[in-house]
Specification:
The chain has helices spanning 5-12, 20-30, 38-50, 57-72, 89-101, 129-146, 184-191, 209-222, 249-262, 292-310, 314-322, 333-343; strands spanning 75-76, 121-124, 151-157, 166-168, 172-175, 178-180, 227-233, 269-274, 279-280, 350-360, 364-373. The protein has 374 residues and is α/β, with parallel strands linked by helices. It folds into two domains: 5-63, no CATH class; 74-373, LigB-like (Protocatechuate 4,5-dioxygenase, Chain B). Strands 2, 3, 4, 7, 8, 9, 10 and 11 form an eight-stranded mixed β-sheet that branches. A hairpin with a 3-residue loop joins strand 10 (350-360) and strand 11. Helix 10 (292-310) runs antiparallel to helix 11. The termini are far apart.
């Protein structure tokens, strides 16, 4: 909903404790003595409640209806279509192709597909295509030139951060280019390793873009002729200062299963991380504005982290990010670690194809990279 400053002030006062009279008094103080009629206050509250913005029975009913519909569906609909990228296949194809050909892209569109073994993995952004499409293009062009995978294990970021390490889904993913089938046999194998319910928070997949944007790229390159294994990475542990994820038995067991699947001979599996790096600035809670010095400092720390990624050193990468308790808010920490653990032993090295950052419209920067693992 779009709210005026006055309406936003009222909405921010609805804390479950403040009554009508208190809000009217605070409103008058904030807006130079202006009287807020009770009927206008009730009207705004009613509209907020109608659309599920208040913690009432109506909100829980709306949420249950949405979650039930998602649970019953066999296909995960593209949440960002028509919002962050074109919904029609022709427009989307042109939109994606421009990322390859223009600006900081690789300068060539996918031509002849490689016939060799697929890349062990790629690490690409999940920032919107408008700001980071060129970085996607670098990674996916390398993937295309190596050889088509039969299955893509995709690790994405669960930005809602439910209290489990990994979230599975058996749903297929619809794209404007067609439906990508989820490999149920692989999902079943992974499910068996979980000592938590990997579907309890499955509804997080409904709006999460970190995997969705990878499925668009795969469908752009290969149509629907690639199976996917969509995995959202959430909280590995309740410990915010965790530096040794190798010590977590449940995480280790799950990633060992991923590693066995990725290393299966003749299965042509590639692993994809949809991961951004630093989130810095007032938009993300920092007290400072973005300056050249801040950008340089972020880039220097990102470079230190990525050196461990290209060396395929998952433990050292995790430790590098957590050296300062992840002050840069590297949201891809978990899924990059998971990707490195999955290709560990099979991939010998990585190549940094692209590193960049983009401004956040509310004040800040987000950095990201594209890396090929082989």
């Amino acid at each position: 909903m779009l709210l005026s400053p006055a309406a936003f002030f009222i909405a921010s006062s609805l804390d479950g404790k403040t009554d009508t009279r208190d809000i009217q008094v605070a409103f008058a103080r904030q807006f130079g003595g202006t009287i807020l009629p009770s009927e206008q206050l009730r009207e705004l509250v009613g509209r907020l409640d109608e659309h599920g913005f208040l913690l009432t029975e109506r909100f829980f009913a709306i949420r249950k209806r949405v979650e039930d519909a998602f649970a019953q569906a066999s296909v995960r609909q593209p949440y960002g279509a028509g919002k962050s990228y074109p919904a029609d296949p022709v427009g989307l194809r042109e939109f994606i192709q421009s990322a390859f050909l223009k600006g900081k892209g690789p300068g060539e569109a996918p031509g002849e597909m490689g016939s060799g073994p697929p890349a062990r993995g790629i690490i690409v952004p999940h920032i919107d295509y408008s700001r980071g499409g060129h970085a996607y293009a670098h990674g996916y062009l390398r993937l295309y030139k190596r050889g088509k995978p039969r299955t893509a294990i995709i690790f994405g970021v669960a930005h809602m951060a439910p209290p489990v390490p990994f979230i599975l889904t058996r749903k297929d993913f619809e794209t404007p280019f067609g439906v990508l089938k989820t490999d149920h046999a692989v999902v079943d194998r992974l499910e068996e390793t979980c000592d938590w319910d990997p579907y309890e928070h499955e509804s997080v997949h409904r709006t999460e873009h970190s995997i969705e944007l990878q499925t668009m790229m795969l469908a752009y390159l290969y149509g629907t002729d690639v199976r996917i294994v969509p995995i959202l990475c959430s909280q590995f542990s309740d410990d915010p200062f965790l530096t040794e994820p190798d010590s977590l038995e449940a995480v280790n067991a799950f990633l060992a299963a991923c590693r066995n699947i990725a290393a299966t001979p003749d299965d042509r599996v590639t692993v994809i991380a949809g991961a951004d790096l630093a989130h810095v600035g007032k938009r993300f809670g920092d007290p400072f504005d973005i300056s050249d010095a801040v950008i340089h400092r972020v880039a220097r720390r990102d470079e230190e982290d990525l050196a461990h990624v290209t060396a395929v050193e998952p433990r050292k990468f995790y430790q590098s990010v957590m050296r300062d308790s992840n002050r840069r808010r590297v949201c891809g920490l978990g899924c990059i670690y998971a990707t490195l653990k999955t290709v560990e032993g099979a991939a010998q090295s990585g190549e940094l194809l692209c590193y960049d950052y983009a401004p956040d419209p509310l004040g800040g920067i987000v950095s990201f990279a594209s890396i090929a693992l082989s």
